[in-house]
Amino acid sequence: MADALRVELVAADRLVWSGEAKMVVARTTEGDVGVLPGHAPMLSLLIEGVVDIQTPEGETWIAAVAQGFLSVANNRVSILSEYAEMSHEIDLEKARQDLERAHAAGENDDAAEEAVRHAEARVRAVEKAS
Which of 7, 15, 31, 111 stands 20 to 30 A from 51 (CA)? Predict the structure, then answer.
């Protein structure tokens, strides 16, 4: 399809999602970035958050991702992350419990802050997909 993006969402351990899209939205260090067909080439640092993929058929795929990279060139979007999890793979109740535990552990060090961001991304991904 000429008016589509070829998207690959890749975690360190697996290919999470691959297919055609009409739009991808991801959070980078510069803020949220929306990518449409014909987007200028770019390479950005991805931050922990939610990736939203809209397919030409009108489907929406939502994923929680960790830090990584977002690359766009020639209507190809590569999202490379240490971990990525599709919203339908996430147990919302467990994700909320993980978030509560992460908050209770405190936010005084980098590991605790990362645990909070990870849990928040998982909860947001499921809630956004609902």
Answer: 111
What's the pLDDT tens digit per position in 81-118? 999 999 999 999 999 998 888 888 765 677 778 888 88
Give the chain's mean pLDDT.
92
Question: What's the CA gap between 41 and 17, in Å, rounded?
Answer: 21
Read off the tokens for 52.
């939203």
Question: Amino acid identity of 22?
Answer: K
Please report which helix (H) or strand (E) contains residue 54, including its range. Answer: strand 49-54
Task: Say which residues have a Cβ less than 8 Å from residue 69's Cβ, sequence separation at least 6.
Answer: 43, 44, 45, 46, 78, 79, 80, 81
| CA–CA gap between residue 90 and residue 104 (Å, rounded) | 21
What the block records as the tokens of 60 is 């929406």
- pTM flag (> 0.90): no
